[in-house]
Design brief:
single chain; about 475 residues; alpha+beta; Immunoglobulin-like; Double Stranded RNA Binding Domain; six-stranded mixed β-sheet; 13 helices; disordered N terminus
Length: about 475
Amino acid sequence: MRNIFYIVIAVIFLASCKAKQVVLPDPVAEQVKAPNWVSSRPNNGFKYIGVGFSEKSKGENYQIEAKKNALYDLASEIKVDISSNSVLYTVQNNNKFNENFNSLIKLSNSDNIEGYSLVDSYENDKQYWVYYQLDKKEYADLKARKKQLVIDKASNLIAASFYDEKNKDFSSSLKKRIQSFGVLTPYLSEEINFDPQQTNGIKNVFDLTNLIQTQLQSINVVPQIKSPVLKPYQATYSPLLYNLELKSKTPLQNFPLMVASDEGEIMVNERTSTNGNGEVQIKVNSVEPLNQNVAFSLSPDINTLMASDSVSNAGIKLLKQFIQTPALKVSANVTNITIHVNSIENNFGKQTGLHSVETYIKQKFNGQEIRLVDIPEEADYIIESIAETKEDISSAILSANYNIKLAALIIDLQLKNRITNEVLFKTQVNDVYGYANSLDNAGLNAYSNPKINAKLAESLFFLKRKILVY
């Protein structure tokens, strides 16, 4: 009986313990609830808000990507107001320009924002979210201090540019003025004023852009007595040389330029630069027949000038909205290649009076790119042709057996550069024969042999390639 009592007590105790047992939640199964700011954007009249997220599937840098998106979102809240006294106001009717400028400001702000703080973050198995905020008053105070530092930097660059100008360093002076505009780019929608005593009378960005414009317009082309000459279809071309100077008659030294041909038939290298003497070379790559005066445009290459400096391409693009880079015109004459044909046609030492070889050569060089001249001094090239007949070695056998004479025609061809007197090509045309009862008639018959044209055509093809490259 006592044993039964103990068993009942044990069962009651175990049942009581089981009733009090606490079931712990599964931490893996429980899902963290997304905060309200993920689904509903926060609103704070004293703070700029930035919320951004990134897909975790993008890789290990998803947190950096989310932060970048949040800061860009924060920057987009910072409104860009265009002051009526700003440079940007002058082009505010250009909607496309304003849109690009605002995007540039936002990107610049997202790269340079300071004083923001992380409010919260959230992540699930697919996304990572961050929430930043920036005090509006702190931002305004910080921006004002930074703006003044930028204005001071720009003022120092402008002052230094006048020192370079005084020392006749055109490129360095212009670079400093463009640099000063570049550092001011984030503030072009606002009013910017300089201390004119520090900047040599430059009061604002309007004065600065006018100064840059005036400096670029001070470049001139030194007049040439005679324009350079171009010939069509040449293998190589000597560079065209021109001289550039400033209005002060000082050579424009070591300054980069963009080159453009006004004629589609002439191809040139797009970039060049003056040397220490102000000489600029235009490298010509190809010329087609035009037979006229042609022009080339030389424009200041600001991008190359500023390539090693801190001014961004976006800043230079903005500057070009306010200035005009003048295009200087230089010219050259495209003329025919002139050829003089000097032909001698003998038959056993006597002139034939036929001119058949000369006529055929001239026919082969008849084209829009070539002009034949009668005066050697007017020619670029001289083709010398000496044709002579002689009795062939087989003539004796034919004469003994058939009373027939055999004459061989030999033509020596030579191409010379008339100016340098250099022989550019030399060959001999042979294997052309004529036969008759006498040597004189056999020689004349050789000149009328149809084979002569085929032989001449082959040799003239290679000769012509020394003059023209199609």
